[in-house]
Structure formats: structure tokens, C-alpha cells
Design brief:
about 325 residues; alpha/beta; TIM Barrel; about 15% strand
């Protein structure tokens, strides 16, 4: 929707939600203390908790931006922002699947992330804030993410868990969850389907409840591991993406992966079936169509989570 923090908070209040995730500085019109306090006050008025993210922290990643300074400066700013708006976490990440195909593969990016976060760990601890490291756009598999978190230190770093991105990295998100759940400090939930294709597989993310995920079990696992943690919905549906694991090129990004490591993912591929991408009718503006489509998917997801998973602290009666 291209909304800033104020409108997102107002929308969340209209839907009687409990929290908002502002997963990047671009949601704020300013990082000045006065503006951040206004955003915090608005959230307080609606009894909403704010969680924030800072984005990529690896200077050797494919798409690292120095818009906010180097990674150390970025993290210092993020910790200040989190403290002001009372976010318990600062979400961070490497980048995307493209980083797996850079010279040296993903490991130099992991090493850089560990270095940067360890250098900022005292500042985070003093502020009472944890880093939430995200598996973003298929850059990390669960084993790699867990090793990264443990290398930084579980006292200051946890997981920002995204099941949709776990699928993209050729994992069954339900299995993915089992190893990472004890370390989750933030999350973004969406459902998914995946099916076999000539080059391997194709997937789409879906509204929660429309895909292959056992959503009640997923939510219950998170609730048991981290009582009171919000379930954030990130709808990115109506877009088919390939996972060409039957091509030699794809495996260059996974030089140490074995066939046994993707068997659960392959089982998912056999369970799924192709779904079509909805297109706007003739004469309908594509941008407006996409916005309304995603809004409907988001609200559908919220309804499913309330009705089937007992999610939400506030009354469903509007």
C-alpha cells in the first residue's frame, strides 16, 4: 500500500490488531526523536505494540545499502529507534538468494553478519533489545541461520522467522520451524503451495489457510515457544516463483547440500498443485488491482487466524 507508520498503525487499530511490524526505516517519515515519539504515542493510544527492523547488515551482500551509514552506524540507529518506540527487537538480515551465488557462496556473508552483530552486541544488551535475524528471500537455510545465531550469542540474537522464505530455500516450513522455534523472537507468517515443474518446482505464497501449511500447529508451536509474541502476517501472494533445482546452475548456490536435505521439500512438491495468478480485468489499473488483492488476502489471513488458531488478544467483535 506504500503506507507510512502512522497509516499502518491506524489500519491496525481499525482491524483491532495487537501489534505492527515496521520492518525497515522507510516506514518512518523521520528518525528524529520527536517524530518517533509521535508514532509511539499513536500506537499507545490504540494499545498497539511496535516491532521494528533495520534491514541488511552485510556490506559484502549483493544489495547492501549505505543509505543509513555503514552497518555499525545502522545498528546503532536501529537500537535508538527501537528504544524510543519500545520495540523489543531489531530485525536484521543478509539479503536474498542472490547472495548464495556470489564468490565464496553464502559463508562470507554469514561471517560478516556475525562480526557486525557481535560488535554491536553490548549496545543491544544495554538497551535490553535482541536482534532478530531473518531468513530473507531464500538467503539462509535453517541450519545456517541457527549456526549464525549461536555464533553471535543466543543471549542477544534470535530468529526472525519467515516460513515462506524457508520454502523458497527448499525446506518444509513445518520442519524448518522445529529447529528454529526455541530461538524465534519475531516472525512474519504466510501460507504457501508448491508443485513440480520441468525445471524443479514452482511456488506461490497464499493467504493464511489457503495453502499446504498446518497453520494451527505452526501457531501453537510459536505460542508455546514464545508466549505473547505477536503473529505478524506478511501477505505476498498472487506471484509464482521458480525453484529450478533440476538445473546445474541452481546447485552452485548450495554446494554442500545433499539430496537427503531436501526430501521433506520434495514431499511438499508432490502434495501441491499449480494455482493461477489472478490478473486485473481489462481497463483496471494494475497497481490498484494488486493493492486491493493484497489487502483482501491480508484480511482473509487475519480472519482465519482468529477463527481457527485463537489468535489475537482483543475481542473479535467490531
Amino acid at each position: 500500500m506504500k503506507w507510512k507508520a502512522k497509516r499502518l498503525i491506524e489500519f491496525a487499530a481499525e482491524q483491532r490488531l495487537d501489534a505492527v511490524l515496521l520492518n525497515g526505516f522507510h516506514y518512518f517519515e523521520s528518525l528524529e526523536e520527536s517524530h518517533l515519539l509521535q508514532i509511539k504515542d499513536l500506537a499507545d493510544q490504540h494499545d498497539l505494540k511496535i516491532y521494528i527492523g533495520a534491514g541488511a547488515v552485510c556490506k559484502n551482500a549483493a544489495k547492501f545499502s549505505d543509505q543509513w551509514g555503514d552497518a555499525q552506524t545502522l545498528l546503532a540507529t536501529a537500537i535508538r529507534v527501537a528504544t524510543t518506540v519500545d520495540s523489543p527487537v531489531v530485525n536484521v538480515r543478509i539479503g536474498s538468494i542472490d547472495d548464495r551465488f556470489l564468490p565464496g557462496g553464502i559463508q562470507p556473508r554469514i561471517d560478516e553478519a556475525v562480526r557486525v552483530l557481535k560488535a554491536s552486541s553490548k549496545l543491544a544488551k544495554d538497551a535490553g533489545i535482541k536482534f532478530g535475524f531473518e531468513n530473507h528471500a531464500a538467503d539462509l537455510r535453517s541450519k545456517e541461520l541457527l549456526e549464525l545465531v549461536e555464533a553471535v550469542g543466543t543471549d542477544v540474537c534470535g530468529v526472525m522467522l519467515d516460513p515462506g522464505n524457508g520454502l523458497w530455500a527448499m525446506e518444509d516450513p513445518m520442519i524448518h520451524l522445529q529447529s528454529l522455534a526455541p530461538h524465534v523472537v519475531c516472525n512474519s507468517l504466510r501460507d504457501y503451495t508448491v508443485w513440480e515443474s520441468d525445471e524443479g518446482a514452482t511456488f506461490q505464497w497464499t493467504a493464511v489457510g489457503d495453502g499446504l501449511m498446518d497453520v494451527p500447529t505452526y501457531v501453537q508451536t510459536l505460542a508455546k515457544s514464545k508466549p505473547g509474541m505477536p503473529i505478524f502476517v506478511e501477505s505476498i501472494s498472487n506471484s509464482a516463483r521458480p525453484i529450478p533445482f533440476l538445473t546445474d546452475e541452481h546447485w552452485k548456490g548450495y554446494p554442500d547440500l545433499k539430496a537427503a536435505d531436501i526430501k521433506d521439500f520434495l514431499k511438499l512438491c508432490r502434495r501441491g498443485h499449480a494455482i493461477e495468478v489472478d490478473e486485473p480485468a481489462s481497463g483496471v489499473n494494475k497497481k490498484e488491482f494488486d493493492q486491493q488483492h493484497q489487502r483482501a488476502e491480508f484480511l482473509k489471513s487475519i480472519d482465519y487466524l482468529r477463527e481457527n488458531c485463537n489468535c489475537g488478544l482483543k475481542s473479535n467483535d467490531i
